[in-house]
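B., you asked whether I could sanity-check this one before it goes into the benchmark set. Here's the sequence:
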Amino acid sequence: MFVPASDGRWIDENFARLAEVIKDYDPSLELRWIPHDQRTRDDKEPYVIVDSRNNLPVFYASELDTPTDILAKLFEGDNKNGNVLSRLEARESAVKILEAKQRLESYEEANDVARVFMQSPLNVFKHNNKKFDEQRRFIGPAIERTTIL
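And here's what the prediction gave me:
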């Protein structure tokens, strides 16, 4: 799924979530995307994590890197020694943090739906193409009425 960006482009929701997690991890770091026409020899990869204090790149990531890989690479860079165990722990931490962020978003969405249900005075309520009765029990999918000629 994609979410709209402020400049009119659409961003993969996983990378939007990754940008939020990186900002939560260190407020001075930012995940940026470099358009094809603005890439140079130094930054041929599309994703870059930049330290906003001095506007210098921390590292670059390719199109093949997943958000988990990018976050694990960021965690690895903070470790003093680069042994295999620390890399595995960094990857596991990255997976857990991204999953927790996704769960938080789904909880917020469910909270919004519950708030709408509780505030609705209707006897039958339709939400996401599903119908609910006055006690908010699931009735079935809402059926659009069509006329047959």
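One thing to flag: The mean pLDDT is 77. Otherwise nothing jumped out at me.
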